Amino acid sequence: MRVFANPVGPGSLWFDNLATATGTPVAYDPQARAMITMPPFCANRDVIGCNWIAPEQGAFCRACAMTALAPDPAIPDAMPHWAKTEAAKRWVLDNLGRWNWFRPEDPGAPPVFYMLAEGPTPVAMGHVGGVVTISVAEADPVLRATRREALDEPYRTMIGHMRHEISHMLWWRLSLRDDFLEAFRAMFGDEREDYAAALQRHYQQGPPEGWRSSFVSTYASAHPHEDWAETAAHLLHLTDIADSFAAAGLSSSELPYHGWDPYMEADAERLIHVATHQVMAVNHINRAMGLSDLYPFVLSEVSRRKLVFVHDWLRRGAQGL
After folding, report:
1. Which H helix or E strand runs over 159?
2. Of 54, 83, 165, 280, whose CA is between 20 and 30 Å from 91?
3. Cβ atoms of residues 103 and 111 within 8 Å
């Protein structure tokens, strides 16, 4: 994620800022990719702290307009959890916008979001036919950590959930093309395999022996759909880590050149090489404070080939190339 110029004075602004250090209200313009001071602001600004601009006064911003179902405010903590969930969604949508997904120049359908709070029954997150369902309850760090430990996962965040579920939606978009499915099946396997049976087998038996040689995570080994979604999410992780590293002004001998833009990088292998070296360094720094690794994964050669495949399709898919 980029660091943004302050439109009314010195200093920088971060992606989620609602105001400058001196109190001037600002909002993010996703088309210009800049912070501005002029309204109209999103109608959800005072409701959930959305800091994007809207097309007109009283309207929702581009991101909030994609939410078709909002959580029941009568459920305890639903509103603050929704605010954190929408913030994660805005972050991921803006990342994908760097490859022209879901912007006005993208001729395809944008995702539709069901943001649901949890009552007595947990909400199953997923994607069907362009609709992404997210449990806002997982914005609670205690609940999220409990589920992460129960599932023996090394990583679980709201941005991670968004990247994974939106990746399912991106697969659905790409599958409408005549040239995608054959190439996908050659790399990931046949998605027509019984999905419910595959997940049942995964949860009952666990991942196959030696899964690390072919998959980025245990869940990726469950079914080709999940392999794609996990791999695509990891590509988004690595690309945004590299972009944020450069935007923060950090230097590394692995950076190709000053001003390098990871989202403009056509060479996926170079992007992955730079990003993995960066995360190894940051993992080492985190350990100095007793924190978990930023990126607690090891990429096999097969996983790297899958990342290259996903990179190729996501870079050009929104433009129909």
Report:
1. helix 158-175
2. 280
3. no
What is the spatial distance between Cα 264 and Cα 188, in angstroms, rounded to a whole number? Answer: 25
DSSP-derived letter for residue 191 is: T
Q: CA nearest 264: which of 315, 215, 227? A: 315
Contact 239, 95 (CB under 8 A): yes
The one-letter amino acid code at 216 reads: V
* pLDDT tens string 150-168: 998 999 999 999 999 999 9
Residue found under tokens 């395999």: 193
Q: Would you state the structure tokens that stand for residue 239, as one six-digit string?
A: 């690309």
Instruction: Say what the pTM is.
Output: 0.95
First to last CA, the chain: 25
**If you average pLDDT over every residue of the chain, what do you get?**
95
**Tell me, what amino acid is at 185?**
R
With contact defined as beta carbons under 8 Å apart, do 7 and 35 qualify? yes
111 and 165 in contact (C-beta within 8 Å)? no
Phi, psi of 201 (to 5 degrees): -65, -40
Which H/E stretch holds residue 188?
helix 181-188
